[in-house]
Amino acid sequence: MRVTPAIVLAATLPAAWLLAAEGPPKSQRPPEAEAAVPKESPKRKDWGEPLVDHAGQLKRLDPVAHIWLDVKQKQVVLMGETCQADYPLEFFATLHGREYEAIVVVDAKPRWVHAGLLAAGASPGHPASYEPTYGPPSGTEVAILVRWKGKDGRRQEARAQDWIRDVKTKKPLELNWVFAGSGITRDAETGRTVYLADSGDFISVANGTTATLDLPIKSPSGLESRLFERAADRMPAKGTPVTILLRPKAR
Q1: DSSP state letter for 219
Q2: 117, burial (CB in 10 Å: exposed 0-12, middle 13-18, buried 19+)
Q3: Is 68 inside any structural domain?
Q4: Domain for residue 231, yes or no?
Q5: What is the rounded CA–CA span in Å between residue 251 and residue 249?
Q6: Looking at the domain assignment, is residue 140 inside a domain?
Q7: b/e per residue, 41-76, with b = 16+ CB within 10 A?
Q8: Which of 135, 195, 200, 219 gives 98 a disulfide partner, CB atoms 3.0 to 4.6 angstroms apart?
């Protein structure tokens, strides 16, 4: 696929129609909103209901994927399952096909997470850059919580950071993520708008130039120099359904 140079996706997706269960007719959408329209409906896993106290009040951001907007709490809710990578981490969460370098795999496209964070009041900054010199990612700070059911069936909760530790010191990650916002580009062959993080660069712990959320520090992505690994002793077993809460922090 040939693409034109990427453009940072600003807060242009209309929040009004994001609050509804479905978007408006295509004729009423601005061109940039096409990046947030699902193009396919693959078979989804049944991860049950999201572990929130008011699931019936959630607004779907995708007709089939496990992602919702919690208008009341101003947060994005999505579901996935633990995958427990054996390699040093590139992501906290990613899409199927890249779970070998992540902790959680989800079925919701990052473009929908971006749209939901906008509707929840977050502002995108920019991903990490390396030219002419390194620049860290920026954007609204986002706290991430994970919930799952223990062996006794009771709800468990942890910070996403508690499942991640420093490769050398073994201490848990302390930083929150920032809403870097990835970017959009136009396919020169098809003319379609492409949201770059839909390739899997969703919630990164190793700086990515197309990540939706990333850590606001220099965190190399090369396998030999990655800073973080999973904290296996703090996590539930592989394949455990989890609810992920993305909470933009007020500035």
Answers
A1: -
A2: buried
A3: yes
A4: yes
A5: 6
A6: yes
A7: eeeeeebeebbbeeeeebbebbeebbbbbbeebebb
A8: 200
- For residue 157, the enclosing domain spans 15-33+51-248
Residues in Cβ contact with 87 at an 8 Å cutoff, skipping those fewer than 6 apart: 100, 101, 223
Structure tokens at 128: 């990490």
Helix/strand/coil for 217: coil
State how many domains the chain has. 1
* Angle subtended at Cα 80 by Cα 79 and Cα 85, rounded to the nearest 5 degrees: 150
Output the tens digit of pLDDT for each of the chain's 251 residues: 333 333 333 334 444 333 332 332 333 333 443 443 434 434 567 898 999 999 889 999 999 999 999 999 999 999 999 997 778 899 999 999 888 889 999 999 999 999 999 999 999 999 999 888 899 999 999 999 999 999 899 999 999 999 999 999 999 999 999 999 999 988 888 888 899 999 899 999 999 999 999 999 988 776 677 888 999 889 999 999 999 999 999 75
The label of the residue with tokens 């919701």 reads 108
10 assigned to some structural domain? no
- Cβ–Cβ under 8 Å, residues 98 and 208: no
How far apart (Å, rounded) are the C-alpha atoms in residues 49 and 241? 10
Distance CA 146, CA 63 (A): 23
A 10 A CB-CB count for 188 gives 10
Question: What are 129's strand-pairing partners?
Answer: 135
**pTM for the model:** 0.82
